[in-house]
Design goal:
The protein has 398 residues and is of the alpha/beta class. It has three domains: 179 residues, P-loop containing nucleotide triphosphate hydrolases (Rossmann fold, 3-Layer(aba) Sandwich); 74 residues, Helicase, Ruva Protein, domain 3; 73 residues, Beta-grasp domain (Ubiquitin-like (UB roll)). Helices cover 37% and strands 18% of the residues. The chain has 13 helices and 14 strands. Strands 1, 2, 3, 4, 5, 6 and 7 form a seven-stranded mixed beta sheet that branches. Strand 8 and strand 9 form a beta hairpin. Helix 6 packs across helix 7 and helix 9 packs across helix 10. It is flat, with a radius of gyration of 24 Å. The protein binds guanosine-5'-triphosphate and magnesium ion (MG).
Length: 398
Amino acid sequence: MLIGLLGKANVGKSTFFNAATEQEVQTANYPFTTVKSNLGTANVRVDCVCKEFKVKDNPIHSICIDGVRFIPVRMLDIPGLVEGAHQGRGLGNIFLDDIRLADVLIHIVDGSGSTDKDGKPVVPGSADPLLDVKLVEDELDYWILSIVNREWSKAIKEANSRGQKVEQLISKRLSGLAIKEDIVLESLKEVGLIGKELRNWLEEDLKRFSKSIRLKGKPIITVANKADLQAASEVIARVKDFKAVIPCSSEAELLLRRAAKRGILTYTPGDHSFELESASLSEPQKKALDLVKTVLKRYGSTGIQEAINRACLGSLDSIIVYPVEDEVKLTDKKGNVLPEARLLPHNSTVKDLANQIHEDLAKGFLFAIDVRTKQRRGSDYQLKNNDVIKIVSTTSRG
Ligand SMILES: Nc1nc2c(ncn2[C@@H]2O[C@H](COP(=O)(O)OP(=O)(O)OP(=O)(O)O)[C@@H](O)[C@H]2O)c(=O)[nH]1
Ligand SMILES: [Mg+2]
């Protein structure tokens, strides 16, 4: 799974990225600090099944802290988007190319209203984040439209001569965006274009269809960053009347993670509070913690974890499955208890899980055991969230 972080320049995308992935990419208070995207690993936070099964786990591909499991997901910090990117303005196609493979997008806006449309600093509260929302969503719609209707008349002729269906033609055009045929079909249905001959499509049809594809194929979670700044309360309250946003302070999350690393405090990402470990704090440290406390008090958390979880579990409706090789001890071959937690699309089958673990495991698939119920499951069994599964395969015997 890949989360893309996008937004206009200077809103805090790289700061969000650093806080979520614990990397140290460059950030600065001027536009276009990031000119090449950065790839890192963030985590989805879920309640682990170790508590239910009353076991002490020792995961190898994820982390479990007191029953809270952190599952890795890839995250891409993308350079700032400018109006007209779909026509090649700013970094144009490079920027849009970065979005192609993202399964879900986190759109970061400046919740304190302190950057203009080009990302230049302005008086806090004077810029309107709703304009950023429109700018980015419009750009994505135009971009998808330009891919769908590229050399449209020629494409219609070719499709007719080959007897190609509408959904096949369009899916082929969108394959580079990792948008599958079922999404194309759903969108055609939604905008009432099923059965309408391509040559009869109007410009308006293409526009409505492209927007529907964007909403389904590249879901967006909107985050109002810089929530720690004084002007943010009023700006975010105003935005919330028109758009669902998650208030967020990347700065606060960054401070918490760095302080936790240095042993100054204990903090589990996504928690509503932290525990101070050090009694002697310098003045700058006290000031930084005051900022963090204000954010936690006002919004309940820094918002970073909530955004990641909503993107992966809410928008994409993914499920978590725990594969094991020993259904009694819940271990892998090496004795690691609940060794991994896998994030899968919500309609995944046991066979999909086997394929994800290893092609050979899927090839030799015999049956699976649902560890919770001890029932045998066939390859088409649709997995549920928190299933613990053992796969029995000719390749796993002996
Ligand atoms: N107060 C506050 N400042 C923040 C927050 N997040 C980022 N900033 C500041 O905003 C400025 C821009 O941050 P970046 O992370 O470089 O922004 P960006 O969106 O990656 O910018 P570009 O790469 O230029 O598009 C920096 O001065 C950050 O310190 C936040 O949550 N609160
Ligand atoms: Mg940046």
